[in-house]
Amino acid sequence: xxxxxxxxxxxxYAGGVEALKGVSLDVDPGDFYALLxxxxxxxxxxxxxxxxxxxxxxxxxSVFGVxxxxxxxxxxxxxxxxxxxxxxxxxEKPFDILVNYxxxxxxxxxxxLVRAEQELRAAQxxxxxxxxxxxxxxxxxxxxxxxxAMMTRPRLxxxxxxxxxxxxxxxxxxxxxxxxxxxxxxTIILTTHYLEEAESLCRNxxxxxxxxxxxxxxxxxxxxxx
Length: 226
Ligand code: ADP
Ligand code: ADP
Fold this sequence. Notes:
- By secondary structure, the protein is of the alpha/beta class.
- The chain is built from eight helices and ten strands.
- The protein has helices at 43-50, 72-77, 94-104, 109-122, 138-150, 168-183, 195-201, 219-225; strands at residues 4-12, 18-27, 32-36, 58-63, 66-67, 79-82, 156-160, 187-192, 204-209, 212-218.
- A hairpin with a 2-residue loop joins strand 4 (58-63) and strand 5 (66-67).
- The mean pLDDT is 95.
- One adenosine-5'-diphosphate binds at residues 17, 39, 44, 84, 161.
């Protein structure tokens, strides 16, 4: 089964904005996939629906063959989400943030302690494990969000504009972390409005505009046509 399958997805918000007008896409297991498009295109709505934060109007979504409408909990266990806004407690330490998150998902404490160290090392944050997270740089905070999402060992990691508004140095550090996660076998989907980011990271992409996919395919093929 595809890591993500979306069929004829539509979303009309209360008030009448048609954010998605029949979107279909498949993401293969192991892929690094970009949803590229300008502000307002519908990217956040799409990943909001996939991660069960937004209700769809119609259409079908499945994650590794698990239908979201039929077995939402099972689908959510396969998926990790890195939201756009920093949303951890700035007055907690990175290590505690990860361990508490794992606890929330029912991971035994002993296992959570092991994973927290692994994920902080993978995100190059092990030396910051015990500082107040408020003192982390912007790039470190964003890598901490990635480390947190990886605590549940998702098979599919979804990131909403992970590098929006950060400078190129920070972006490169995050790219490195994401490449390593993908190389270790996790499927990644990210939204971005930077072509350069999609080009540098992703194998496949969909270009979305005004709630519709206007191009879809391997990065190399699409770049050749631009
Ligand atoms: P993107 O992530 O590509 O910037 P969004 O999915 O956030 O696009 O938005 C798509 C469209 O839906 C935009 O016109 C946006 O204003 C609208 N929209 C997004 N969220 C809501 C909401 N909660 N209520 C009403 N309209 C919304
Ligand atoms: P993005 O384009 O990255 O999604 P936005 O600024 O469009 O960022 O949206 C930020 C938040 O506001 C999101 O939670 C989105 O759902 C909500 N939002 C966006 N547009 C509208 C809207 N027209 N009405 C209500 N909520 C909206």
